[in-house]
Amino acid sequence: xxxxxxxxxxxxxxxxxxxxxxxxxxxxxxxxxxxxxxxxxxxxxxxxxxxxxxxxxxxxxxxxxxxxxxxxxxxxxxxxxxxxxxxxxxxxxxxxxxxxxxxxxxxxxxxxxxxxxxxxxxxxxxxxxxxxxxxxxxxxxxxxxxxxxxxxxxxxxxxxxxxxxxxxxxxxxxxxxxxxxxxxxxxxxxxxxxxxxxxxxxxxxxxxxxxxxxxxxxxxxxxxxxxxxxxxxxxxxxxxxxxxxxxxxxxxxxxxxxxxxxxxxxxxxxxxxxxxxxxxxxxxxxxxxxxxxxxxxxxxxxxxxxxxxxxxxxxxxxxxxxxxxxxxxxxxxxxxxxxxxxxxxxxxxxxxxxxxxxxxxxxxxxxxxxxxxxxxxxxxxxxxxxxxxxxxxxxxxxxxxxxxxxxxxxxxxxxxxxxxxxxxxxxxxxxxxxxxxxxxxxxxxxxxxxxxxxxxxxxxxxxxxxxxxxxxxxxxxxxxxxxxxxxxxxxxxxxxxxxxxxxxxxxxxxxxxxxxxxxxxxxxxxxxxxxxxxxxxxxxxxxxxxxxxxxxxxxxxxxxxxxxxxxxxxxxxxx
Length: 575
What we know:
It is a single chain. This protein is α/β, with parallel strands linked by helices and 575 residues long. The strands form 4 sheets. Strands 16, 17, 18, 19, 20, 21, 22 and 23 form an 8-stranded antiparallel beta sheet that branches. β22 and β23 form a beta hairpin. α1 crosses α3, α4 (62-77) crosses α8 and α11 runs parallel beside α16. The longest helix has 19 residues, at 327-345.
């Protein structure tokens, strides 16, 4: 693509507002900036689109939103008139422009004869997944950039099962995008006209209530919270986002009497003024929650990201400090608790199953199998976890009780097909209350799990590679590791090299090559002689390579030494 030609096309389109026109005029003498904005479109993948908000083909803006929606509308329309009647559910998060983008998507769908159910205001991502299933929609659109910084926005698309698009539908949209001119190829209509004609229907409180009924049905031990309700306290923060309403509502319905919400972060604000990054994976974002917890003698802190699909926890230790519990650890704790609580209350299905992704701790497998459950791996992404759940259950091969990935995402129940911080917040609170009733903190419960199942350790490294040069660097690193896999890492022999792109497994001692079940994803895995796994993959939503270390030691000291040793090797990849 000729980026200067594309730049001129936008400048002379006649479609831009005066402010947008001025933004592009201001970069006319900056060829590098022009190239970065117009060298090509944002790549449409199974996670949809995500990028920084600015005018240009490679950024998130109303023209890119309309373009993507027209392509999606074509894919929906190709399913027939019934699909158009079933329509789409549309949701948005708290970010700047999210409502504008959501309405623009609704207008394009309506102009294409596709019925739209759009939420009246921001809602959690899992509620969008629920709405698609609840209303029998053909598809869903969610305007969100999840936990990314304030400069970002995104566009997630869902299919009729309530899960994000499978690869073949994403590829169909990508093909449509190539055929459609971003300015002249779009059908759209005025929002108010579409409402008046019944093409756009606004939904809200009634959908919240239907969703909350499903959430509350997930309570596993109804006595856990009431038993300690007079003394149990927790702090909650939505990081300025979508969890502000439904998470406190669910906790209140479960019997929580002492819920302290961080007041500064209960304010809906797409600029996220109190945090550098609204990501519960980053402990520094919890500083206001920690201050509130200290002031009120609270052991347990919950935080959900801006679109309320991820949840992180912090717990007070014996020395009074508040410790972060990682996504891997949180998932193991919740899995062990749920399996035990289901067994105690007679809710454990006959053939229980736990699902995790290939980059999630192997400790989950040990916990699941100890409780008599099967454990399966999928590629990273809840569309793959949802697909595996549906496949197993349809075949009668088991009932999935819990699915999770290490990046603070947890899926429970049958009413959503995406990560769900509302339900997870409820069950994590139930778990914390249960342990409080036994005189234990969540950290003490985690220590007990390590003593029982082994000293597993995990760490994720992010090799950030921004800009055009970064894309080339990412491709170069993956190519190098694929074509010349290391025989040793940090002085330890690599015994197996797995390439998930073609599904091959190479025994480095013999050179023998076999095939594994999973294939079709740009992920590399190195199995080491000491049982450690190191996994390398490009992020699907951000300009970085992610490197995962999954290890185990004879005790905590050996585990931590392994993480440090292999972390030092990861640092060499940056050079």
